[in-house]
Amino acid sequence: MLTLTIMRHGKAEPHHRADFERELAPKGVLRSRLVAEMLAEAGVTWDCAVTSPAPRASQTADTALDVMTSGLLPSYDRDIYDHADPTTLMSVVRRHADGARQVVVFGHNPGMSWLAQWLCPDFVDQLATSSAVVLDLEGADWADVSPGSATLRLVCRHQDHPGAHLEDKP
Fold first, then answer.
1. Distance CA 165, CA 25 (A)
2. 6-24 burial string, b = 16+ CB within 10 Å, else e?
3. Within 10 Å of residue 4's Cβ, how many Cβ atoms?
4. Which domains, from first to last, does the chain contain?
5. Comparing C-alpha atoms, which of 77, 29, 38 is closest to residue 54?
6. Which of 49, 96, 43, 52 has its CA nearest to residue 74?
């Protein structure tokens, strides 16, 4: 079985610079950490990580990978930023998986939500910032993955973390 975790970047700073250059806001860092803690607590692991090179996505990846304490370094792929269609995003996963069984992709909406919906008909939501969906896929290889072939295992949203109420405290 293959596992794909799809995580949308955390809350970004306001649009004071070009969209691609926007970084995570402090809330985005905290919320990404909360979601990564929930994923770790649920036993999710990764042997491949790929992220958009946009700072807000790559900072989300760094935060999540730090929480997971895997020592895993992400690969960067501009197609995650430039293209929202699920077939292109799935091609990105295939390009980077290289024998991996548990992949995480960090990116942007609408693409991250569309990819989850394309793979799993049971996932009908839009991924909010700092949220993740974990999908199980039957098949021996990423080339076998097709639309509708995933089973929804887990959805993690920062507001569901027991410590989420602390985020507004000084």
1. 18
2. bbbbbbbbeeeeeeeebeb
3. 26
4. 2-166 (3.40.50.1240)
5. 77
6. 49
Q: For residues 41, 42, 47 and 49, what is the CA-based torsion angle, rounded to 10 degrees?
A: -80
Structure tokens at 128: 């909010």
Average pLDDT in the 98-102 region?
Answer: 94
Quick one: the chain helix, strand, coil %, rounded to 5? Answer: 40, 20, 40
Instruction: Tell me how far apart the alpha carbons of residues 111 and 113 are, in angstroms, rounded to a whole number.
Output: 5
CB 150 within 8 A of CB 156: no
Per residue in 136-146, pLDDT tens? 998 889 999 99
pTM of the shown model: 0.95
Helix ranges (H only) for the chain are 26-41, 55-68, 79-82, 86-97, 111-119
